Structure formats: C-alpha cells, structure tokens
Amino acid sequence: MTASPSKSLETFPNPNPDRDFVIRMRMPEFTCLCPKTGQPDFGTLYLEYIPERLCVELKSLKLYVWSFRDEGAFHEAVTNRILDDLVRATAPRFMRLTGDFGVRGGIFTHVVAEHRAAGWQPAPAVILPPGEWIKQ
Asked: Which pathway, metabolic or otherwise, does it act in (predicted)?
C-alpha cells in the first residue's frame, strides 16, 4: 500500500477567487469507532463550501477522512472537529459539513455544522421561472 491515513490537509489556490461558487463533495466511506463500545460506526460526510483563497485537495481529504477509522468519536464531536480542521486549512467564505451516520442503537444521527467568515453574506437566491423553451 502506498498511501497511509494522514491528518494533513493540502490546499491549492482558488481558480476563481472573485466569484462565489459552491463546491460539493460526498464521502460515503467515513468510519470511526463508537467511543463506548469500540464497534465501528459508518457514515457519509457531505461537504459544501464557498472558497475564499484556497480549496482542499481531494487526495489529502481522502487520507484525512481515512485517519478517523481507528479513533473513537461521538458523531457530534467528529463532525465539528472535521469542520474545524477544514476551516483552519482553507479559511472559506462559507462551509457546511453534514455527517449522516448509520444506525446505532436503533437511531440514525444527522449532524450539521457550519462556518461563515466574518462579514460574509451570501448573494440573494436567484429563482428563475421556467422558460418557454422548457416543454412540460
């Protein structure tokens, strides 16, 4: 095996820093351990962010997510920790991390954590009516 888990998050320059655009990622293979029983927990992480100057590099993100495989963590704590680490690495305008965890004790857990840069405001939503070119 040539790759190993890592807590290091690499970045690259935002290719369009003058524009708000959304990057969405789905990480369906997140695993950590239940801090009470030591049994594996499985979840999907959903990352959405609007970069400022930096974007997170995908291979480093994959290895970072992999690094939690043998760690005990409550769902709420690990979701917030990952968000904090990503914000520290990229300093985005906006970032949301959603942890959608598999059943534990008959309960599914869905944790949403957000970060907004000081002073950043999203642009108003644009809702376009269907055009005549759309056949219904």
From this structure: tRNA modification; tRNA-queuosine biosynthesis
